[in-house]
Each structure stands twice: as C-alpha cells, then as structure tokens.
Amino acid sequence: MKYFLTILVVLGFVIACNPPVEAPKTAGFSNIWDYDASGGIMIGSQESVNLLNDYIEKHNKRDYEGIHAMNIDSIQISGPGGERIQTSDEHVAFLKTWFEQADTQWKPIWGTSVKGVNDEFGSMVLSVFDTKTTTKDTVIRTNDIIQAYISNEGKIVAFWVNSRQLTAKELADIAAAEKSGVN
Q: What sign for the dihedral angle of Cα 54, 47, 70, 165?
C-alpha cells in the first residue's frame, strides 16, 4: 500500500509539472505560397510591424541604401498598377525613377502581424497607410494596404500594394486635421 501511494504521489507530481500543451489560438487561413497549407494563422510579432514601419520611413526619407539592406536580394513586389519587381536592385532603381517624378509620402494608419502556425520562416504584416503623392501639377491622396512578408531574420521577402482613391469625405477630414495641426 505504501508503494502504491508513493507511485500515486510521484505520478501526481509528473502530471502537475507537465500540463497539457495547448494548441495556438488561430483564426483564418493562409495559402500564400503553399496551397495545401494547414493549421491556420495566429498573431505574429510587434517586432515585424515595427520593422515594416521603419522600412516605409526609409522610403519617406529616400534612404535607398537602408531600403536595399532590408530587402532580400530576390524580393518580390507587386504594385497597385500591375508593377512587378523581382530584385532589390530593381526595386531601388524603380524608386529613384518614381521619386524623380513625384514626392510620395506614406503615413501609417494601422498595422498588425499574422503568422502561419506551420510557417517557420517569417510572418505577414498587414498595414494601412494614407499616401500623398505630389507632382508639379497635382496632389493625389490614396489609401494603401500593404501586405509585407518578413523573414525571421528581419528581411523584407515580398510585398503587395493595393491602393484606392480617398472619398470626398475622407479628403475633407484629412484637410481639416492638417489645418488644425493634428497628424
């Protein structure tokens, strides 16, 4: 009986010290590169959101060396007008040409990071920016959704930009905020 109680007490300690492993809380799905993906997606890291904001700020400051350093060499970019960029060098050249013709600035509105449960390489940042592009004749305001895939090493692997024109109400709200000094 004493032996049985000892085993029961030891077994109780083993079970108490090794609680069951809970599966991560997930929502949604991701088939970005693997159309047979399973496991769902979960919240990613704030670090990847901060990294994307830093990357966009390098665009605002025209820091081409910083942008190039954050890209992987074979970065994949899809722009809102059907642009397709496949290398970091091509990306920087594209930006230099663009910024010679227009002054574009991005203002972050919100962003979050998600990660595939079975994705060991990186995470996706989903973000929204109000964008202002000024040329010698025109000012264009858009709302851009940027999805960026960021490696665990902190490199931009790919990103997709979707853009829409702002409504008259949104433009009026932005103008009023700028006039009052609210950023």
A: negative
